[in-house]
Amino acid sequence: MNFDLTDEQKAIQSLARDFAQNEVKPRAEEMDRDEAFPYDLVKKMAELGFMGLPFPEEYGGAGADTVSYALAVMEIARADASTAITMAAHVSLGATPFYLFGTEEQKQKYLVPLAQGKMLWGFGLTEPNAGSDAGNCQTKATLQNGSWVINGTKAFITNSGTDLSGGTTITAVTGTRSDGRPEISNIIVPQDAPGFSRSKKYKKMGWRASDTRELSFVDAKVPKENLLGPQGEGYKQFLTILDGGRISVAALSLGLAMGAYDEALQYSRDRVAFGKPISKFQAIQFKLVDMLMQIEHAKLMILKAAWEKDRGRDYVQTASLAKLYAAEVSHRVVNEAVQIHGGYGFMDEYPVSRMYRDQKINEIGEGTNEVQRLVIARLMGL
Amino acid sequence: MKIVVTVKLVPDPNAEKRIDTSTKRLVRTGVETVLNPYDEYALEAALQLKEKAGGDTTVTVFAMAPESLKETLRKALAMGADDAVLLSDPALEGSDVWATSYAMSHALKKIGFDLLIVGGLSDDGSTGATPGALAEYLQTPLVTNVRKADAEGNSLKLERETDTGYQTVAAPLPCAITTALTFGEPRYASLKGIMGAKKKTIAPLTVGDLGLDREVGVSGSKTALLAANPPAARGKGQVVEAADGATGAKAIFDFLKERKLV
Fold this sequence. Notes:
The complex is a heterodimer. Chain A is of the alpha+beta class. Chain A folds into 3 domains: 7-119, Acyl-CoA dehydrogenase/oxidase, N-terminal domain (Butyryl-Coa Dehydrogenase, subunit A, domain 1); 121-235, Butyryl-CoA Dehydrogenase, subunit A, domain 2 (Beta Barrel); 236-379, Butyryl-CoA Dehydrogenase, subunit A, domain 3 (Up-down Bundle). Chain A is built from 11 helices and 10 strands. Chain A has a 4-stranded mixed sheet, covered by helices on one side. Chain A has a 4-stranded antiparallel sheet with strand order 2-3-7-6, covered by helices on one side. Chain A has a two-stranded antiparallel ribbon with strand order 9-10. In chain A, α1 runs parallel beside α4 (66-79), α8 runs antiparallel to α9 and α9 (316-341) runs antiparallel to α10. Chain A starts with 6 loop residues before the first helix and ends with a helix. The model of chain A has no long low-confidence stretch (mean pLDDT 96). By secondary structure, chain B is of the alpha/beta class. Chain B has one domain (2-209): HUPs (Rossmann fold, 3-Layer(aba) Sandwich), CATH 3.40.50.620. Chain B has helices at residues 37-53, 74-79, 97-111, 130-138, 191-197, 245-258, and strands at residues 2-6, 9-11, 19-20, 25-26, 33-35, 58-64, 83-87, 115-119, 142-152, 155-161, 166-172, 175-179, 202-205. Chain B starts with a strand and ends with a helix. The mean pLDDT of chain B is 92. Classes of the chains: A alpha+beta, B alpha/beta. Chain A binds chain B through residues 7-8, 11-12, 15, 18-19, 47-50, 53, 57, 62-64, and chain B through 71, 74-75, 78, 188-192, 194-195, 197-198.
């Protein structure tokens, strides 16, 4: 056992922390209030290499490992969850499918500019009537005269409508399997495909500075070669993509908890009641200890999952446990952070109120806590 | 142009620190070591000059520090320095400015430079004397508090920050400069820089490589540290109680005026 980070992992963590604390954190309240997508921060993150952190250098990435990626997402989320989801969704959901399943030509065309952060990309799985039930995909694509003709709707798609967005990879039913079930494939849909349009940004409770839209396809047309990987592999592919994504959403949940803990710790030292800082009272101390305990516990699980992935081991169960646990930890920690702030925690000008709103989606996005339990139960062979 | 930047490895300025009363040294346990923040400005200046000059301009960072802190130097390489030299030797322990700058100057002669850039101050020792001592030992001109630098052929055109404005100064190469904090915010080390830094060299030097003709370390030092004390605890502040804002503001203003602070 070795709990030491490598020098490189430490350097990446420290870069992410400096960047997040200096550049992202001071802007978080304003971005949340104005629902302003942080183009300038994304540009800086791209220049520093965050938007392609885990991809090999030959595809425009930084060539760092999953542990470094998880540490970086944690630090960005510690400052602002919206900025963190913009980065994490781009890397894990936008760019990763091209890295895992793209042809060399597709990698050059899409992965390279995505890893360089010059372009953003969405991943369209969820539909208005297919969330956890992702297999019940209603969007259909049929081959007509050398083109895929797509009809359907996708919901809650991150990074799909920014000025930098180049397109979205979507799941669509492309036929019927021999067992009679629908055959699902992943199709690359560029922003300018005829018949493809995006809604206005959703009005959201949290993650307000991130870009989330509904996508609609009305006889949308893309060339036949825009299939990602072999036809009919879509279901398997998105399960693999979600497996890896769990590590980054777990890191995002934990980062948010760390940020709320930072705020609560500082506040408890500054706030004086009954003649002394409230950090001197057992009721507050016990809360802070419980928060730290859960944060440290979740961190170990996340880093273990990342460590397993980096070694090519089966990391799926650890990652699912980490995602579920980190989401629940962030719920409890953020809640206690607001409690420690008392009435001020309910006020907009205190970051914990934003964090309280930002937290909820951690228990829903990329697999609800309930579905996560189902996934784990299946992995346990129950 | 060969630019050498001296960097000191210091305890994290943001960490809480404690002095060991028996050794009179800072307790380093549990305190992370970082590049001296002032030296990051010096490195930023070097990297900007390299970007402007292009061609065969190189940036070497030089540090005198225990071998165990070697990896801290990696950050300078990640920020964009081409290579590094680390002078490490137990014999150097306890060196004062006199001995430190003597040893450093010999190492710098060995490395060779056209331009030497030194941070104005170290965050831990804060003597501010090393740049001057280095220039003296190296017999080079020294321009302090530089906020802007341009290479023009075999000389430099520099702007020096002063209390009342700035001066424009020319200096021949080789020379030494110290940087003002107005030179420009030090850049972040990019991910590419961090990954690339692994492959850059940190060349080791020991006292034996320098051909010194006098002692360094405690016995080679002219000054001795007699005591190191924490700052005196701050007294209790004065609380102004006032019936309304205007009266309160006046009371505070009078307080400041009395002490000639406004």
